[in-house]
Write a structure and sequence with these properties.
Elements: H1 2-17, E1 73-78, E2 92-98, E3 103-108, E4 114-120, E5 122-128, E6 134-140, E7 144-147, E8 152-156, E9 163-169, E10 177-178, H2 179-184, H3 192-199, H4 203-213
Helix pairs in contact: 3-4
Bound molecules: manganese (II) ion.
């Protein structure tokens, strides 16, 4: 009897443990009503009778983004915040552009696996497993690479020309935790003593990094 019950628990865990992405939808469409005052997990649906093609459309990824910034890269989103019709659908895209030498610095997506397709250029990409193993490769135009959900990853343009990718996510809003900015540019600040102990360096070094990563006023 106990064995049967244990088997039942395993079966239950298999069924409920297999949902590793956004929750499944309960209706055809749920176009986000950004103006709704009610807060839910995602966005409230607007009346389906008022849905239009524009709710499911974006031209935002057609052109390269400007990469003249600190890291020499720009992520242009096509997620539920840009395309209201993506609400509850569990997918989204982004375009990432890289200047020569540009980097999309180490970061994680708490809610999605990412798959990139190289539009142009050559990129050194990689992710680090929870066992601290670096999985990395150089990829070029037409090639695809995958960054598993939640793992720290990066893309670096070591090439002489610009590079760009289209990134797909199994979430309507993948979320991004930029490791450097999270630790050194949070508001309020992460205390210096937390960072000096963590990185085993002095306060001067921590303050130097903080000042360089601080948002430009
Ligand atoms: Mn990413």
């Amino acid at each position: 009897m106990a064995a049967v019950f244990a088997l039942f628990l395993v079966a239950l865990a298999t069924v409920f443990g297999s949902s590793a992405a956004d929750p499944d939808m309960l209706q055809d469409i749920c176009v986000a009503d950004y103006a709704a005052g009610v807060k839910v997990n995602g966005f409230v649906c607007k009346d389906a009778a008022n849905a239009t093609a524009e709710d499911f459309f974006s031209a935002g990824l057609a052109k390269p983004g400007l990469t003249n910034n600190t890291f020499g890269s720009l992520v242009t989103a096509a997620n539920v915040q840009k395309i209201p019709g993506l609400n509850t659908l569990g997918v989204s895209l982004a375009r990432i552009d890289y200047a020569p030498g540009g980097i999309n610095p180490p970061h994680t997506h708490p809610r999605a696996t990412e798959i990139v397709y190289v539009l142009e250029g050559v990129l050194d990409v990689g992710f680090i497993t929870t066992a601290n193993k670096l999985i990395s490769k150089t990829i070029q135009k037409g090639e695809v690479f995958v960054f598993p959900k939640g793992l720290v990853h990066f893309q670096n343009n070591n090439g002489k020309g610009p590079a760009s990718v289209i990134a797909g996510f199994n979430s309507q809003l993948q979320g991004t935790v930029n490791i450097a900015l999270t630790l050194f540019a949070a508001t309020p600040e992460v205390p210096d003593h937390v960072l000096t102990k963590t990185f085993m360096v002095g306060t001067k070094m921590v303050d130097k990094i903080k000042s360089r990563l601080a948002p430009k006023a």
